[in-house]
């Protein structure tokens, strides 16, 4: 096992710096703990999102389901699930810079970063100065107490690895929508002195906080000193604006925008004290505030056509007439821009001008920090649009299923509203919001040119096959490197149990689930190539698949490489009479093993030196093919009814139903035939299923015993054995040396292959009740006819065997996390008898303990099918 935790951090840093997009970092951080620690150490503002993610409402099912939070990605319109137990039962707000502010019914307020899983406790709700009058339910406080939150900077210092006390967390809170702030480490929230109340939104720009009240009046606050933290006006509200329209303040390309949101419907009233009498402003004259005067300089030298708001009674803008049965619904937006006033004698140095177009910008408003992004730089965003979520939380109670339906994208050019999220995500407290990083313009870094040797170094340290799925999913560049690797260099951490195909809609059937022994979790992968096809583990990470079209393929789930093999009708021996294609799909192939990888990573073509060996048909005969061949070729053999195949040191070994083992050299297709190397053990039964496993250089014969009314194995297992007429096996010196003993100790020999097993007591059609294991050993007895003999194996030591519809494999339990030593892991491969079950095969899965003959069940669930039962993916 290679140690790659010591991979130099500068290499990972180089890669992550090229991952310009926030959403890709989720996947990088999920590769392993070492990568996660590097991701955590980065300054988060360096990692902007590819496009904002819509964090959907909390699921209202069991505890495990509620821990899964779904994120809808604008760039590809797909939904991704992440386990975030820290958000369960908590109302969340996008607090800028990728952080969320959360509050639960315990009234504890936290900052939480979904990427790094960093959590910072802030002062709880009772420490705010102004509380509601009378007793208020905690659930109400969780949903309504906080209205908005914005950060001045990241609250976490990646250098000192502790929270940053220079960070200011500014909130709008309470029924009067007042202002308060705190810093990491403070014990209480501090009210901010301000000339008004009923604030709607906050923004932070160039060291100052800007807030807007419900009438559109904008205030500014410096952040130099907590004792002097107060807001003062920089521009009055536009004439004619209404307190009934919700206001947002957005910094876009260095300009301050005032965005007003209009709703229609019987419950569109915004609530709060929005009709208060405005206090007379008594701070310093804003004209003396030269710093604020320069805050929003025009970047363009061209003079825009100005349409002053004073000329219109309303704030101007396009809106749709409300025609809907919902309690409330957004019908339009208006946008104003703060611009320097050059008119002589004007009382104010700024004025509002109407904005008809946002150009390349896209605005995001709702329960997140209001942000403007360049649509051309962020894939998935549409230019000249305002994306909004449902933040009308005071009125969720007037809906049938909660808030969350009022989500859309308002097009500035024609006033129409689109709905980028096609689904529905409703809740009475945790409605969807946009997860945002920051609104700084960015250049997309080109990291496709990252030297392949760096990726190769990393992947070589990923000793475990299952981690490669995640690495390959990071981006196309990484996927191409993964595809170019020789697959045998990438062993699995532990075999994955590929579960049965789902029998729901087409989209559901494309998702194949894999159960991972090492962490007992299930992972889903989109594999449409496997839909409706019976699969067999063909070794080296490849699957052999056959469908009702009778086409046979090799498929590698990691690289998505597919190689077409000759179809079923090209086999020599077929069933007599007409046989249904569904029956052939399930039963025609019994086993498949490869001699080597069928894909050449150097030539990027299939490898004709690869031999694909199969057991097939009702008589369980042998046939092989190579990539590029047009038919399957039968193999001359002295018997029939074979149970298993193994490949070792250039030769194929097969075992028949009586335990007789044969070997075949692969030098020449014309001379490809099997001959016996050891006779069957005395007393073995044809009614026990046989597997042949190469374990630590030794050949093991594993016999599987089943009980139950339908445990009969089927096939021609009671045939009269042909007289063996090949060469004397004693002359086969190469085969004699194939399985040398590594230990000098002589094991006790037993004539019977017998072994422990449980008595069958079960209502199932069949069930595994035990295993016996024999080992092939050099025979030193004088005068013996054979050079090998069978000896009973009482313990597998550190080894764990995996048998079933996969190539039979032995792994070191100490090297592969999740495997238990001295166990035989098995799946349900008695496919001829699935028809005698109620819901299909797949229930006969377990792990047989050699020390006491007991059977455990590592997979806790149920995965049944009449054709695509679970198998070990190795």
TrEMBL record:
Which Gene3D superfamilies would you find in this protein's record? 1.20.1280.50
The F-box domain is annotated at 7-50, 450-493
Ranges annotated as biased composition (Acidic residues)? 278-314, 722-753
UniProt cross-references to SUPFAM superfamilies, sorted A to Z: F-box domain
Region described as Disordered: spans on this chain: 270-321, 721-761
Q: Known PANTHER family for this protein?
A: OS06G0707300 PROTEIN, OS07G0183000 PROTEIN-RELATED
Protein name as annotated = F-box protein
Q: Give the source species.
A: Quercus suber
């Amino acid at each position: 096992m290679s140690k790659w935790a010591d991979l130099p951090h500068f290499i990972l840093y180089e890669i992550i710096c090229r991952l310009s997009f926030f959403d890709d970092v989720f996947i990088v951080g999920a590769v392993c703990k070492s990568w996660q620690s590097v991701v955590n150490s980065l300054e988060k503002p360096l990692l902007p999102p590819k496009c904002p993610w819509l964090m959907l409402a909390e699921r209202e099912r069991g505890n495990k389901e509620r821990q899964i939070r779904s994120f809808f990605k604008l760039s590809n319109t797909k939904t991704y699930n992440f386990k975030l137990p820290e958000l369960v039962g908590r109302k969340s707000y996008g607090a800028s810079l990728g952080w969320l502010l959360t509050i639960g019914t315990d009234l504890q307020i936290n900052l939480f970063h979904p990427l790094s899983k960093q959590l910072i406790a802030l002062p709880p709700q009772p420490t705010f100065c102004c509380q509601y009058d009378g007793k208020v339910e905690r659930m109400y406080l969780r949903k309504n107490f906080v209205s908005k939150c914005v950060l001045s900077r990241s609250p976490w210092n990646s250098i000192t690895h502790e929270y940053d006390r220079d960070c200011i967390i500014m909130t709008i809170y309470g029924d009067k929508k007042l202002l308060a702030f705190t810093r990491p480490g403070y014990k209480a929230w501090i009210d901010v002195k301000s000339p008004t109340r009923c604030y709607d939104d906050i923004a932070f720009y160039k060291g100052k906080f800007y807030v807007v009240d419900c009438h559109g009046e904008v205030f500014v606050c410096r952040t130099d000193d907590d004792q002097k933290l107060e807001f003062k006006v920089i521009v009055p509200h536009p004439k004619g604006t209404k307190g009934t329209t919700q206001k947002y303040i957005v910094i876009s390309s260095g300009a301050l925008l005032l965005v007003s949101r209009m709703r229609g419907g019987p419950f569109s009233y915004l609530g709060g004290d929005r009709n208060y009498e405005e206090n007379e402003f008594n701070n310093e004259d804003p004209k003396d505030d030269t710093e604020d005067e320069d805050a929003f300089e025009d970047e363009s030298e061209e003079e825009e056509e100005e349409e002053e708001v004073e000329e219109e009674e309303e704030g101007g803008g396009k809106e749709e007439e409300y025609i809907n049965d919902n309690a409330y619904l957004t019908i339009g937006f208006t946008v104003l821009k703060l611009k320097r006033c050059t008119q002589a004698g004007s009382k104010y140095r700024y004025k509002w001008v109407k904005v008809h177009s946002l150009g390349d910008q896209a605005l995001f408003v709702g329960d997140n920090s209001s942000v403007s992004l360049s649509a051309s730089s962020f894939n998935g965003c549409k230019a000249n649009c305002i994306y909004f979520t449902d933040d009308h939380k005071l009125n969720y109670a007037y809906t049938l299923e909660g808030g969350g339906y009022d989500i859309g994208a308002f097009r500035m050019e024609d006033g129409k509203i689109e709905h980028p999220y096609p689904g529905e995500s409703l809740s009475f407290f945790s409605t969807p919001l946009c997860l945002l990083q920051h609104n700084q313009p960015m250049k997309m870094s080109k990291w496709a040119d990252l030297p392949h040797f760096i990726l190769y170094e990393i992947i070589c340290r990923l000793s475990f096959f299952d981690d490669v799925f995640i690495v390959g999913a990071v981006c196309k560049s990484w996927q191409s490197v993964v595809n170019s690797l020789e697959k045998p260099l990438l062993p699995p951490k532990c075999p994955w149990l590929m579960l049965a195909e789902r029998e729901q809609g087409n989209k559901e059937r494309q998702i194949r689930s894999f159960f991972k022994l090492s962490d007992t979790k299930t992972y889903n992968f989109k594999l449409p190539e496997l839909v409706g096809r019976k699969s067999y583990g063909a070794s080296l990470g490849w699957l052999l698949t056959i469908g009702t079209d009778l086409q046979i393929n090799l498929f590698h789930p990691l690289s998505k490489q597919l190689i077409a093999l000759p179809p079923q009708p090209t086999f020599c021996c077929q069933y007599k009479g007409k046989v249904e294609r569904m029956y052939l799909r399930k039963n025609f192939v019994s086993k498949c093993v490869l001699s080597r990888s069928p894909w050449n990573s150097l030539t990027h073509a299939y490898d004709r030196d690869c031999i694909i060996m199969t057991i097939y048909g009702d008589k369980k005969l042998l046939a092989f093919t190579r990539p590029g061949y047009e038919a399957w070729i039968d193999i001359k053999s002295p018997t029939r009814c074979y149970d298993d195949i193994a490949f070792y040191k250039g030769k194929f070994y097969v075992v028949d139903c009586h335990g007789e083992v044969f070997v075949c050299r692969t030098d020449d297709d014309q001379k490809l035939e099997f001959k016996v190397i050891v006779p069957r053990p005395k007393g073995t039964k044809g009614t026990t299923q046989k597997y042949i496993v190469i374990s630590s250089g030794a050949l093991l014969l594993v016999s599987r015993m089943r009980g139950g009314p339908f445990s009969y194995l089927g096939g021609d297992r009671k045939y009269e054995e042909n007289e063996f007429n090949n060469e004397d096996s004693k002359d086969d010196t190469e085969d004699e040396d194939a399985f040398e003993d590594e230990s000098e100790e002589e094991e006790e020999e037993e004539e019977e292959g017998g072994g422990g097993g449980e008595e069958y007591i079960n209502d199932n059609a069949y069930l595994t009740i035990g295993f016996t294991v024999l080992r092939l050993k050099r025979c030193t007895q004088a005068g013996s006819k054979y050079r090998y003999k069978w000896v009973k194996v009482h313990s597998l030591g550190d080894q764990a065997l995996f048998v079933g519809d996969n190539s039979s494999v032995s792994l070191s339990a100490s090297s592969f996390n999740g495997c238990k030593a001295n166990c035989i892991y098995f799946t349900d491969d008695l496919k001829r008898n699935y028809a005698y079950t109620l819901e299909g095969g797949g229930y006969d899965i377990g792990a047989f303990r050699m020390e006491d003959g007991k059977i455990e069940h590592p997979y806790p669930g149920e995965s049944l099918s009449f054709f695509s039962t679970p198998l070990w993916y190795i």
